[in-house]
Amino acid sequence: MFTAISAVIGFLASIVPQVFKFFQTKEDNRHELAILDKQIEMQKLTGAQRLQEIGVQADVSESEALYRAAEPKITGVLWVDAVLQAMNALMRPVVVYCYFFEYMLIKYATYLILTQGNMPWKDAILALWTDFDQSMLAGVMGFLFGNRSMQHWFGKK
Q1: Is 0.85 surpassed by the pTM of this model?
Q2: CA torsion sign, 72 to 75 to 76 to 81?
Q3: Domains in the chain: how many in total?
Q4: Which of 71, 95, 120 is the last residue of a domain?
Q5: pLDDT tens-digit map of 69-117
């Protein structure tokens, strides 16, 4: 009887390491899969970050190319260079003056329409000065004087 029990115990004892080895291998495989998942996730994040860096670098390169293209070209002919520099310097102010003149014409035409419709001139002026006009004036003044202040403070004048 003891011999049979010893034989069964010996048989079961030989299986126990294989069962532990099976569970250990299963746990190791699960751990390997978790590590691989983390590596894949890290590669995705690294790839997304690299794409973002490429996009930012492309924006910087585009801005640099635009600035280089906007630089005045020197022809070597004195009067041509003077005319090109004058045109380059006057382009923005002339466009701004044209739009301002158009804006004033539209406001004047609206004023005439309101006053010809029997509205008192005081009420017509108050009706013309809207929140949009206040916002536009504040934006333009802030840009003009803020830009000059920043240039003065940072020495880029």
Answers
A1: no
A2: negative
A3: 2
A4: 71
A5: 877 778 888 888 888 888 888 888 888 889 889 999 999 999 999 999 8
